[in-house]
Write a structure and sequence with these properties.
The complex is a heterodimer of chains A (about 230) and B (about 290). With about 230 residues, chain A is an alpha/beta fold. Chain A contains 7 helices and 10 strands. In chain A, about 30% of the residues lie in helices and about 25% in strands. In chain A, a hairpin with a 2-residue loop joins β9 and β10. The two termini of chain A are about 30 Å apart. In chain B, α6 (about 155-195) packs across α9. Classes of the chains: A alpha/beta (about 230), B alpha+beta (about 290). Chains A and B meet through α2, β6 and α3 of A and α1 and α7 of B.
């Protein structure tokens, strides 16, 4: 499903964000990418979305070599991924319903399908009653739930969440994590970048720890362990 | 692109214009202001061009027939004059009119006309030429016509009118080009500002997987709507003002301005074309920068 082969990333200012990363996440897995701020996990996510290109190595998403992908094909790559960001990234001038429907209009879904799928996605995240309000009228937790609904409305096989609980209080954070778990239970591969120890430790999923651009630990049913002496 | 997607994009353009009302109105306001300023200059320049054309059509050559010619023979001369391809129009001046003119000219010295009567004067034709630069050649050709005794023309005056008209036209065309480039610059910068304010929105669309054109089209539609709206209102303001001013000027008998009826089609076409094309074009160019995600 997702594979990094000998991936390194050096930014133009000389910072080495990732060094020789080899990582494979299989279909149907739920994996946490953990590490402190600046450890390189966001760069890893950016490589998956082809927001950045690796300096060395190859990145595969759904068996496609993202590294050599032409820019005009990038939208089609992203359409097959569900993406959730820390800052929600909802379209401010669209209602909750329109924000979710937008993801379906992009792939030119038929209106009947949009009218069927959007309410289902809204129901899944518990926001059926807020379909016609604008993002600014929602709490942070609700906005992130809209982002989750938008990410899953096209039934992607892979869901990528970059610090999805970073801007939320503990209660809302748990709501989002529960939702991600529910989506995973339905068969979607989920990759979550986070540095929230409590969530990682409770979920008992695969944990890939990144520190200073290196993978220092990769454990099934792992814990968030940060030990400076490990490398 | 599927029909339903085109429908969605057009609807999006309209809805976005409405939802970003303040920015839309601000942009339309700039379009109106720019086009009104451009329009005022345009009308001044159009009238200058009109005057230049009128100048170049002033009576330039006067052909005098033999006073002995009868009416039939005079008509023959007129026919021959008209066969010259460079003659735009002819106006006949009768013997009586020429006599009257002579009397007016010599008012106070009437004794100088003693012994002359109407029949001493000849019929003449006042000609307008298509190309004034060859007046002297045409005069020579006209002198060859049987029954023509004299051809009057002032080459200096003709040259002056010709040069003046030519320069007014050149300057007008240059000024118009500068003016429209200036309008295009102001309008496109306004659109750029509007898009800059919404760069985050564009960014989000890219992350969700929208293609560049899927993002561009609603902005282009917005640009067109704003351009149409701005162009139309600028047209109404300019033509309304022109009507008032031209009524006053006409009333004073000062000069002959272009009639509103002759010019409104050109003005509305230019305003709407500049508004929509620049609005849409600027959307495309200013979006590119924000689409690289």
């Amino acid at each position: 499903m997702v594979e990094f082969r000998g991936v390194s990333k050096r930014y133009p200012n000389g910072t080495l964000a990732l060094s020789n990363i080899n990582l494979k996440i299989n279909k149907g897995e739920f994996a946490f990418l953990v590490g402190q701020s600046g450890s390189g996990k966001s760069t890893l996510m950016k490589l998956l979305l082809k927001e950045e290109n690796p300096t060395e190595g190859e990145v595969y998403v759904n068996n496609n070599d993202v590294t050599t992908m032409k820019s005009e094909h990038v939208p089609y790559l992203r359409r097959n991924l569900g993406i959730i960001f820390q800052d929600f990234r909802l379209l401010p001038n669209k209602t909750v319903y329109e924000n979710i429907a937008f993801a379906m209009h992009i792939i030119e879904s038929i209106p009947r399908e949009i009218r069927r799928q959007v309410p289902m996605a809204l129901a899944l995240v518990g926001l059926s009653r807020k379909a016609n309000v604008y993002p600014e009228q929602l709490s942070g937790g609700e906005q992130q739930r809209v982002a989750v609904a938008r990410a899953i409305v096209n039934s992607p096989s892979l869901l990528i969440a970059d610090e999805p609980t970073g801007n939320l209080d503990p209660e809302n954070s748990w709501e989002i994590v529960k939702l991600l778990n529910e989506i995973h239970q339905r068969g979607t591969t989920v990759i979550v970048a986070t540095h929230e120890r409590a969530i990682v430790d409770t979920m008992k999923k695969r944990v890939v720890t990144i520190e200073k651009g290196h993978i220092v630990r990769d454990q099934q049913k792992g814990l968030y362990i940060y030990e400076d002496k490990n490398y | 692109m599927k029909i339903r997607t085109i429908k969605y994009i057009v609807k999006e353009g309209g809805v976005n214009t409405y939802r970003n009302m303040i920015m839309s109105l601000a942009s339309a306001g700039i379009v109106i202001a720019t086009l009104v300023i451009a329009g005022i200059f345009f009308l001044i320049l159009q009238n200058l061009m009109h005057s230049a054309n009128e100048l170049s059509e002033r009576p330039q050559v006067q052909v005098f027939c033999d006073s002995e010619l009868d009416e039939f023979q005079t008509k023959e001369v007129e026919k021959k004059i008209k066969t010259n391809s460079n003659v735009l129009s002819t106006e006949k001046v009768s013997k009586e009119d020429n006599f009257k003119k002579a009397k007016e000219m010599f008012k106070g010295d009437e004794d100088l006309l003693e012994g002359f009567d109407v029949n001493s004067f000849s019929v003449s034709y006042v000609l307008k030429l298509k190309d004034t630069s060859v007046s002297s050649d045409i005069a020579k050709q006209l002198e060859q016509i049987e029954g023509v005794t004299r051809v009057n023309f002032s080459q200096d005056l003709i040259n002056f009118y010709y040069t003046l008209s030519k320069w007014i036209t050149i300057i007008t065309v240059i000024l118009l080009l500068v003016l429209f480039a200036f309008s295009a610059f102001i309008i496109s910068n306004t659109v750029k500002l509007t898009i800059f304010a919404r760069r985050k929105e564009i960014n989000i669309m890219k992350y969700i997987g929208a293609t560049d054109w899927f993002i561009r089209w609603p902005f282009i539609i917005e640009g067109i709507i704003i351009g149409l709206f701005g162009g139309f209102f600028a047209f109404v303001i300019v033509m309304w003002g022109y009507q008032i001013i031209s009524n006053r000027i006409e009333g004073s008998g000062f000069t002959n301005l272009l009639a509103v009826g002759d010019i409104w089609r050109t003005v509305i076409l230019i305003f709407i074309a500049v508004g929509t094309l620049v609005g849409a074009g600027a959307s495309v160019f200013s979006l590119n920068k924000h689409l690289k995600v």
